[in-house]
Amino acid sequence: MARLNATHDPALRSWVESANAPGAEFPIQNLPLGVFRRRGEAAARARGGVAIGDRILDLAAAVGAGLFAGGAAEEAARAAAGPALNPLMAMGNAAASALRARVSALLAAGAPERARVEPLLVPMAEAEMLPPAAIGAFTDFLTSTYHTERGGRRTRPDSPLPPNFKHLPVAYNSRASSVRVSGEAVRRPNGQRQRPDGTVHFGPCEALDFELELGLFVGPGNPLGEPVHMDFAPDHMFGYCLLNDWSARDIQRWESHPLGPFLSKSFATSISPWVVTGEALEPFRAPAFPRAAGDPEPLPYLRSEADRREGLMDIRMEAFLLTPRMRERGEAPARVTATRFANMYWTFAQMLTHHMSNGCNLRPGDLLGSGTASGPTDESRACMAELTEAGTQPLALPNGETRRWLEDGDEVIFRARAERDGFVPIGFGECRGRIAPAPAWPRGRDDV
């Protein structure tokens, strides 16, 4: 808690009244960053903004209006005002902190600059959100013992956890080019799979799934060949978003041996558009997951006393399902998962340190996925594979429908809030994706 400052003050209020409403996603204690344009504007008009209540502070306009009068805050604002946040991410957390402090002062109740700032606020209802960064690489981890054990019991009942799971954060390199921002449709993939009778088929995925995760955007990177000590890993961690690691389970089962997921994961990943900075989440730090008696201690390069004390975050995470029938009848989405990020066995600092330990160079804007954030209870199962016992036990929805896997037209919605007594809760915004049918297979030359 030593890193708390005036921007975290629970008594702080904004002159933007929607930011003060109970349950607001974006109170003045949050101030996440994103990239947007007004609906109908040309793509070239994409620029950085800060969420406050139901408004967006246009950073490009604020810089142009002289509201960042020199110093570190103006330099950071200029870096964040463009079509991607990568330049700000490269500057490090001190620059993001200077920007946050100035924006907080401009939006706080009683701010003398209100009359100059108010015309620069864009209603969220009039904005189109864009990817917050140019993502050069995307790595997805596997860090929940609960998720891993539930899956492993079906294929390895005597040893559901892989032998290396408690020694290192397991991961694979996924596909950055198919990461999409919340709201974009997710097209059901085609792929090859083996059916229970042993026959091999190619066609639309028959076992489409979601995975509720938290994403981390890398800040300053590291030069190729130069690892980073774990004590300094937080200096390379810029901010967080919600992440849906869409998974084609039937394709995944068939292709994952011997090298792991490939086409079953690379077709789409959805992220929420707002990046909640590490500084905004300081009040919600939580101890690392307690290791059971007999578990191996992390090797020295993955061990840090500060990380053990506060390496996780207490974030409540939820997944909802909206079916076509619910949509037609005007029904609310059904909550299917309620979990907490503090259940993860490995921390993001450990993930980042391990990623760089062989000298791999990470770059500003690279994305890391936490892995499915499942917890110990049935309610905290964070994917359809867990909720339906790999499709063998249908999930019953409140309107009488059932699902074994996701169907065309289904929409998956993620929401999350960081909460702790004595502090103002902050949200992440939504991460949405609706399933579109698989494309018809393209015609070849001989078909014309």
UniProtKB/TrEMBL annotation:
Residue positions annotated to bind Ca(2+) are: D140, E211, E213, D245
User: GO:BP terms for this protein?
Assistant: homogentisate catabolic process; L-phenylalanine catabolic process; L-tyrosine catabolic process
Class of enzymatic activity (EC top level): hydrolase
**Which UniProt keywords are present, listed alphabetically?**
Calcium, Hydrolase, Magnesium, Metal-binding, Phenylalanine catabolism, Tyrosine catabolism
Involved pathway(s): Amino-acid degradation; L-phenylalanine degradation; acetoacetate and fumarate from L-phenylalanine: step 6/6
EC number(s) on file: 3.7.1.2
What residues does substrate bind to?
A: R156, Q252, T372
- Ranges for domain Fumarylacetoacetase N-terminal: 29-130
A Pfam family of this chain = FAA_hydrolase_N
As one GO molecular function, the record gives: metal ion binding
Can you tell me which residues form the catalytic site?
A: H147 (proton acceptor)
Necessary cofactors: Ca(2+); Mg(2+)
* Binding positions (Mg(2+)): D245, K265, T269
- Give the Fumarylacetoacetase-like C-terminal domain ranges: 144-435
Superkingdom: Bacteria
Where are the residues of the annotated region Disordered? 181-200
Name by which UniProt lists this protein: fumarylacetoacetase
Q: What is the originating organism of this protein?
A: Caldovatus sediminis
